[in-house]
Structure formats: structure tokens, C-alpha cells
Amino acid sequence: DTAVSQTPKYLVTQMGNDKSIKCEQNLGHDTMYWYKQDSKKFLKIMFSYNNKELIINETVPNRFSPKSPDKAHLNLHINSLELGDSAVYFCASSHSGINEKLFFGSGTQLSVL
Amino acid sequence: SQQGEEDPQALSIQEGENATMNCSYKTSINNLQWYRQNSGRGLVHLILIRSNEREKHSGRLRVTLDTSKKSSSLLITASRAADTASYFCATDSPEGAQKLVFGQGTRLTINP
User: Fold this and answer.
1) B5-28 residue pLDDT tens
2) Among residues of chain B, what percentage have pLDDT more than 70?
3) Poorest-pLDDT segment among A50-54, A94-98, B47-51
4) B111 alpha carbon, distance to own chain's centre
5) In chain A, what residues touch B101 (CB-CB under 8 Å)?
């Protein structure tokens, strides 16, 4: 069983469209994250949720809206996609916070044309 | 903002040799973590070392931490082709930012 699973793995779309990426973890963790990895492999945190509550919103445009229906799920919705949104988006989870190891999903490669 | 920086950016060695990667950071930390990322995959946790620890081992991996120099190193001994990957250090902040900040990684290539 995959611990942190995100779908889709690849997402190719036109500028201006709206898209969603889903993430689920079956580890029973309280905290989930979204990270963005750019073409230079630089990994930057976007959001962090603890038990369905937002605890970090890292200066991300409000076109990005995370939603956590329960502590096992953290979805990412992106409105009005722009070329600069092209990147790999990673979902991750940890037991209770950042002082523990993170478990990452396999990533969603988003390409905006 | 606080950020780990890995050095070198890329490293290519022969199978069987040891690989050493370094990480420097800017502010005080609670812990430092190392992750591996294979091409096209997510990051996998390798080792977490706390600020009061100086060295930690896991199999062929050895991590050191020097808080006075704000630096850490990851040593992979007897490298294998399967060790080919990018390696990232990540640091937290005791000031309560509650986020793990990653460096840009070292791209390690093991040549058979």
C-alpha cells in the first residue's frame, strides 16, 4: 500500500484553466504539506495543515487553494493556471510536525502550455 | 530566509568509492534531515540528526553535524549504482516557523 498517494502523476493543461491535485495518506499522520519543486530542483513549502487546520501559507498566490476535508486528505486546487505554475508538486505528511521525518508522495508534474 | 545549501551541486564518482556531500545553513536549528530523491520520484527520508547530536549512522550512511559551523555532511560509503540520486538537506527553525526548509540538492552519479 502506498503511504502517501497523489493523483494525477502528470497534468498537462492550457493557460487559464483550473485544475486540482489530490493527496491522501494512510499513515494516520496529523500533518500534511504541499511542496513545489521548480526546474532547478529547488523545493519550497507552499502549505501545511495540521488536523485539517491551515498552519502555514507560504506567500502563495491565492489562485492556489488547499482543502483538507479530513486529516488524511489534502487537495490542491489551482485557478487560472499560468505558465510559471509549471513545476512538480509534492504532497507530504508527518506524524505531528516538522521535527519528524516527512513522507512524500511521488509528485505531480504540472505542465502549463 | 533560512535555507540549507548543499555542496557540491553535482558529484560523479566510481562505484565502490565514498561520496561526501555537505550542507550549510544560516540560523540555529532543532534538527537537520537528509533526503534522497531518485529521478521522477518523491523524496525519501534518510536520517534525522538533532542539534545535540554530532554524528549518526544508518547502514552505509554517516551524517555529522557541527552546529558551531552551521554545517552537516552526509557520507555514503562503498557507493553503488543504485545510490545515483539527488540528496537534499532540510532544516527546521526553533523560532517557531514550523516549516522544513530544503536546499537545492546535490546530484550524485555513481558510475559503474
Assistant:
1) 888 999 999 999 999 999 999 888
2) 91
3) A94-98
4) 20
5) 45
Cell 523524496, residue located: B43
State the best of A25, A34, A40, A43 to mutate against chain B, taking most chain B CBs within 10 Å.
Answer: A43
Instruction: Kindly state the DSSP code that residue B82 receives in the 8-state scheme.
Output: G
Q: What is the pLDDT of residues A32-82, one digit of tens each?
A: 999 999 998 899 999 999 888 888 787 789 999 999 999 999 999 999 999
Q: Distance, in angstroms, between A16 CA and closest chain B CA?
A: 26
Each residue's pLDDT tens digit, B70-103: 999 999 999 999 999 999 999 986 555 567 889 8
Q: What are phi and psi of A34, to 5 degrees?
A: -120, 130
How far apart CA A93 and CA A24 sit, in angstroms, is: 9
A94 close to A102: Cβ distance less than 8 angstroms? yes
Query: Are the beta carbons of B102 and B90 closer than 8 angstroms?
Result: yes
Cα angle, residue B5 at apex, residues B24 and B93 outer, rounded to 5°: 70
Q: State the residue for C-alpha cell 553503488.
A: B80
Residue A84's SS3 state is helix
Distance separating alpha carbons of residues A2 and B98, to the nearest angstrom = 26
Residue with cell string 535555507: B3
Cell of A10: 502528470
